[in-house]
Amino acid sequence: MATLNQKSLRMSSLQDPQRRDWLKKAGGLALGFTFGPNLLFKVYDARACEDGLRANAWVHFRPDNSIGIMCPTAEMGQGIMTSLPLVLAEELDADWNQVEVEQAPAARDYINPGYFGVQGVGGSNSTRGYFTIMRLAGAQARRIMLANAAQYWNVPVGECTTAPGKVIHAASKRELSYGEIAVFSEVVNNPPVVTEKDLKPRAQWRLIGRDVRRVDVPAKVNGSAQYGIDVQIPGMLYASLARSSIANTPHPLYGTGAENGPVSYDDSEAMKVQGVVAVVKLDHAVAVLGTDYWATVKGKRALKVQWRKGELASKYDSESKKSEWAGIARDRSKAGRAVGNAGDFSAAFKQAAQTVSAEYLTDHVHHACMEPFNATAWVRGKEVDVWIPTQGQTWAQQVCARITGVPEEEIRINTTFVGGGYGAKTEQLMTAEAVVLSKATNKPVKVIWSREDDVKHGAYRPLTAQRMDAAIAADGKLTAWSHRLVADSVLVRARKVVWDKSPGLDGSVAVGMVQPYGIANKHHEYVHQLGGVPVGYWNAVGNGFTIFAVESFMDEVAAKMKKDPLQLRIELMTDPRGKIVLEQLRKVSAWDRPREGRALGVAYNHGGAWNCQIGEVVEVSVDRASGAIKVHKVWAVADPGTAIQPKHLRQQLETGIIWGMSAGLREQIVIKGGEVQHSNFYDYPVPRMDEVPEIEIHIVEGAQGQVSGAGQIGVAPMAPAIANAVFRLTGVRMRELPMLPVRVKTALNEQAVKTA
User: Fold this and answer.
1) Confidence of residue 698 (pLDDT cuts 50, 70, 90)
2) Record: fold of 3-222
3) Fold agreement between 228-311+373-448 and 318-364+460-755
4) What is the distance between the alpha carbons of residues 752 and 51, in angstroms, rounded to a whole number?
5) CB of 131 within 8 A of CB of 115?
6) Largest Cα–Cα distance of the chain, in whole Å?
7) Which has the closest alpha carbon to 669: 741, 747, 738, 744?
8) Crossing angle of helices 646-665/718-730, nearest 10°?
9) Is the predicted pLDDT of residue 415 greater than 90, yes or no?
10) pLDDT band at 705, cuts 50/70/90?
11) pLDDT tens digits for 290-330?
């Protein structure tokens, strides 16, 4: 059974200097090979070392037969510390029971080509981004073992083969374990070059597709797992930061949000709190530092601060903003950026025998991670060490370099376990705060955001207004489809370099608008509006609201056409994989069977670049007295291409389904006069265990050999499936998220008045 190498995650003052030195040396001996345009990655020469052989940046063979395999990205509960090393172990022909998984240091050697070309994780890009790279690294390390064994035996390398954890020479009946080879190995002259043609065919896989136990679970069960918030450094100070009540979180790379910073402050009472040692004014906040966290919290509460109020943010009202943007969505004179258009929508719409139109609204939602934001930094001149639960090691290095002047590659980022990320922990403000305060005090400093800090000063999923229009011809065919999305942009604040390359279009916000339904004339349009409050990446990002509009509207079109909504999707589906998913979903959910007092709703998500498809059917009931919706059961059929670990895939889909249900039914950030009206789980509720429905998941592998990102795919279909089920049960269309009981009750009452 593979294990987690706790040494690699220990909270020491420095990363392993020997490892860093080796990486620097190896970098000069790199063999280059490419994946796609302008993306260069490295597989290294073998390097002999005192404790075995480092075959490349990813694999370390030790004399005791253990094999260290690097995991380049953060473990956030998604199981990536098992899945990615398992992929490498497959090509290496390693004995999984001998594998020790290590957290890779922050270095260019571990960048993710599927995620902005940085070392990081988001958008379900870990598996897709690293799959081929890690297979090639494993294949090269295996060839190095073969070459060393063949040289030792003085036989042609072609006569040697491998079995799990060893090299075999069948002709002489000799074998050597990888650990034995590591003892005598020498640097290989002209190390083997590997390409994708050298990788195992699927038929030879013995690890990929097989369920194994997650390497991170034992530490999380016995309490030894180290999260960022657990970090302890001798002599460390804690820091709590007072922030403006106006929601405008600064971004450390682009300097936004300082317009809401402190003008002046009185720390006389704060300094009287036992344990408080200093108060430091920053551009955007006032920090209280002390010998323990609780002292800093009390000191923060005792501060008296006068704040600037940014004009745009202080006037922001989320309810009025939805109405304003709904008007923009209706007004076609306000042009946006086209997204995947086809045919001539306007002409087809004018010629229609019937038309259908609807508007959909979605509120801001927050990440509500179990582990609030935190970071620990220790700046000592040109020595910079940071311990963070982060989704973006490279971005952390960039922030630290900007503050300290130390080159990025010299900054040591210690990636801890992440207690939930969901896009929130791509943010680096907490990193910047810890580094600035450590530099100012010449001490290690741990910044902790309270739950209230997290809720009131997060970067929320964008608020949206969406307008849908469709045309039905005289022959009953759906001939035209239009989707106008009005929303703020994440890229404007968080990835401005990317935004500047294509101004007016944020692909992460507009994702999900284009689905593989066979409609001849399609018009998709993203209309960017600057809101004034911070918006950021949120689980499934744009899919969370675009799929709500697309799949809710598909049901409205089906009703107009007097067709079964699931059957209509099957008929329109152009992707063969999608058709299989939907047909299987109809079967497993017993779609055509009537339910007493309940109803079924369906929704589908193509997944786009994730290369994963999913269809979901939900069974719901509605308490007409209160307006509360209850989800009783969920059926899901997913096609991930290749399921690296089927059990883990199901767990990922289950969490996405629960997340989507939560966002669809209750999660809401309301902002009035720029101030967030929520502060903790009592007024920002998430589902409890007894509210989780029965979930039945079926996996089909329609694109074998291909890999996908499945972490977020299950989120988006839940809200529209629930809304569609509510309509089939009550006749009421829910077009606004979340579907709060008060909103459902209001809709039911309005329906009753109309039918009276």
Assistant:
1) very high
2) Aldehyde Oxidoreductase; domain 4 (3.30.365)
3) yes
4) 77
5) no
6) 94
7) 738
8) 60
9) yes
10) confident
11) 999 999 999 999 999 999 988 888 999 999 999 999 999 99
